[in-house]
Amino acid sequence: LETVAQRLIRDGFDRTIITPLFENPGVLFTTKGVNILFSHFEFATSYHQFLETASLDKAVLFASENAPVLERAEQTYGVDKTVITAILLLETHLGANPGKFSTVSMLSTVSSLDDENLRTRIWEAIPQKTKPTNKAFVANVETSTNEAYNELKALLQYTRKEGIAPETIHGSYSGTFGICQFKPSDALAFARDGNSDGRIDLFNIEDAVFSVANYLKQHGWKPGLSRQQQFDVIYTYNDNNYYVDTVQKVSDKLKEK
Questions:
Q1: Which residues of 204-237 are buried (b: 16+ CB within 10 A; e: fewer)?
Q2: Are 129 and 39 within 8 A, CB to CB?
Q3: Entry pTM
Q4: Please, what is the Cα angle at 95 between 68 and 151, to 5 degrees?
Q5: What is the pLDDT of residue 130?
Q6: 172 Cβ neighbours under 8 A, 6+ residues apart
Q7: Which of 100, 125, 158, 204 is 20 to 30 A from residue 197's alpha carbon, by CA?
Q8: In which element (H, E) is residue 170 found?
Q9: Are 24 and 132 in contact (CB under 8 A)?
């Protein structure tokens, strides 16, 4: 990842911070996780679990235990608290599964894939049964490389702002992190301090709740939206029709409780 580190330094990041970060043994080029990024597809069946009784019961308990912050978020941003709860359920099982992949490593690895040799290593690591065509893979890489680099820069800006060591953040294979699974750029733009402690930690429930509420408000949510208008706003959070449909169905179930 030396090329990525040097690019960051050229773009104005402090060498005395970047060099030791990329010398950290926990920050490395990795095929694990990144190969999933270029082969994974979501189907409707992957969302059925969230409408099962066990998942809904956990959501009801979460809503009860965190009622004060959910109500504050709803009052502050005008966003339905059952929708906030549903999103956190789908994203990380309400914080139980925020992801295990090093966010710096994931984003740095994808950022490095303009190197043909490194790109080949990822291609070879994709299981045959989920391997796309090489043409589709290369096209996906070309689209993802610069986006990942911009998210890497955003991650470093966010962690510097909040006083967090970037190598300590772990999340999904796609580079999202926290209970709400924000991209780093979204963390910079939309994350909010829900517990008024002067910092934003997306692994904190109160901060995650307020951040989701603010994100949805900034993307058009307001009281009185039709169901389709609500669908369209939630779609900006995760552009998967099955995902949005499940969020709305979980929200409906929570309102019945």
A1: bbbbbbbbbbbbbbeeebeeeeeeeebeebbeeb
A2: no
A3: 0.94
A4: 110
A5: 86
A6: 99, 101, 181
A7: 100
A8: strand 170-171
A9: no
Report the alpha-carbon distance of residue 210 to residue 74 in Å, rounded.
9
Mean pLDDT of 102-122: 96
Q: In this structure, are residues 95 and 84 in contact, taking their beta carbons and an 8 Å threshold?
A: no
Q: Taking the CA of residue 183 as centre, how many other CA atoms within 13 Å lie in the half-sphere pointing to its CB?
A: 17
d(CA 1, CA 141): 16
Say what the pLDDT of residue 44 is: 53
Angstrom CA distances, 132 to 36, 41, 140, 179, stand at: 11, 11, 10, 30
d(CA 93, CA 85): 10
Q: Which residues pair with 177 in a beta bridge?
A: 171, 182
Burial letters 40-61, b for 16+ CB under 10 A, else e: eeeeeeebeebeeeebbebbee
pLDDT digit string, tens, across residues 128-173: 888 889 999 999 999 999 999 999 999 999 999 999 999 999 999 9
